[in-house]
Amino acid sequence: MAYEAEWFQKLSEEQNPLVSKQDYVVIDSERIRRRVRKNNFLKQVFLLLTSLGIVVLGILLYQIVVQSIGWLDWSFLVSRLSINADKAGILGAILGTVWLMLIVIPVTIVLGVSTAIYLEEYARPGKLQSFIKTNLSNLASVPSVIFGLLGLTVFSRLMGLGSSILAGGLTLSLLVLPIVVVSSQEAIRAVPGFLRDASYAMGASRWITIWKVVLPVALPGILTGSILAVSRAIGETAPLVVLGIPTLILMYPTNIMSDFTALPIQIYYWTLDTVLTKEYANLAAATIVVLLLVLFVMNSLAIVIRQKFQKKF
Amino acid sequence: MTVDMKQNQDVVYDVQHLNLWYGETHALKDISMQIMNHEVTAIIGPSGCGKSTFIKTLNRMVEIIPGVRTTGEIQYHGKNIFHEDMQVEELRTRVGMVFQKPNPFPKSIAENVLYGPKIHGIKNKGMLDEILESSLKGAALWDEVKDRLDTNAYGLSGGQQQRLCIARCLAVQPDIILMDEPTSALDPIATGRVEELINVLKKDYSIAIVTHSMQQAARISDRTAYFLLGELIEYEKTEMLFSRPRDQRTEDYITGRFG
Ligand SMILES: Nc1ncnc2c1ncn2[C@@H]1O[C@H](COP(=O)(O)OP(=O)(O)O)[C@@H](O)[C@H]1O
Ligand SMILES: [Mg+2]
What's the predicted TM-score (pTM) here? Predict the structure, then answer.
């Protein structure tokens, strides 16, 4: 500090005419005061706008939690669906969501990470690579209902998978694949070149370098992206609704070809029917709380992983 | 330029009319020189003269950079390294490389040393332990790390990391080790230790070392090559080059009248 101060003094005295002792800048206190006031005013405006968003979110959460009180209990979690609101539970929907993830996680990670490896490590910069990259970013901005239509056409109709877990899982996989690819690409790109050099210089092939050096270093980033993608898939409703999931499924899913319901669909259907049966609003609220908790846990996990493994180089 | 050269089995690298371009930049211009077995060959010259490029060409690491083009020949023990029969992985296994900035893997000390042996298929635990110990001893690091072989390499000091990188090279028993300014990121004490190590290693290995320090070249090398603007100006026994340089440009550089 002392050194810096000394240095600055020297600089101001000898070299920099703008801060030298002669007054080039005429100080206008009134103008400065006006600027400070404007700054304070803007600060308040931004604070207000930020709080507005948070307040709306808070009201929403409050409403939902209040509505779910008395409905969200253990038996709600472990019971079958029922037309009778008092007896209805969401075990089927929970199992459906778990089954969906059993499809989505392996499919997106295998396809997504492979694509990212290909694009970052193998593809020569050229037409094909830029074609894939453009399509990926386009895909990421396609509305999810379109993915539902795609799933309906390809998986349900063409491949004859109907409204099974497999059809739903594949549709959701497609939806979140771009997220996994892009975040894996970023994680792979962030692996420092000197580590690759070290491996190549030892006589390692490209694949060994990827497997033993690049992927282990990129793993936390890939995991973070994948968890966020999976939590997005868990919350998606539209593509599944388009697939034509039946409104009332009493059976628990047993395999990937079973019909199923999932947490967000159940919320959607119950919300639709609140006009006729008022208690359905409470059931929907209770399910929302469950879904939010799941998502909260997953996103926290992603943040923890990201912080824990942040750059060590 | 003529240099008294011993006969063939004493030559590791025979470089003939090597040219290299980065896109349009002509970085190496008609380089011809021989790198001798069991000698330390120093490469000196001002920044940007092509020292790193040259040394990275010897194990074809330079080809990782897109747009690189070469002409000419480099014979490695009589085989042209640019020939299509030459497997680059094999070349790089036999030719070790130490970089300017220490670059251990973010793995344990043991895993760093055993990276090479493992990727080349050695699985025998006893053998791996032996390689681990002898490589670390070879790099004068064993005593400092023998009690923490399973801790992360990034816990070591910079000088220790660089010696770990040397140990990692030794683990695959290379025939020559290429070093690109291996001490420029180290403090003087760590530099001294690495130089000592080079003096020991030269009994068993050939070493080609790029250095920005003429004193270092004078201290550790048997022969010195002076590069300037992509050209090899002079290549001589180190003593000769520093005491009686033949080229005016070499003299200007070593007497500090350069530039
Ligand atoms: N990756 C690269 N792409 C393009 N030009 C490069 C690259 N690396 C080095 N060069 C150029 O090649 C010349 C030699 O560089 P380099 O071998 O790094 O010199 P030195 O190691 O002697 O400082 C320089 O003119 C430099 O600008
Ligand atoms: Mg260099």
Answer: 0.82
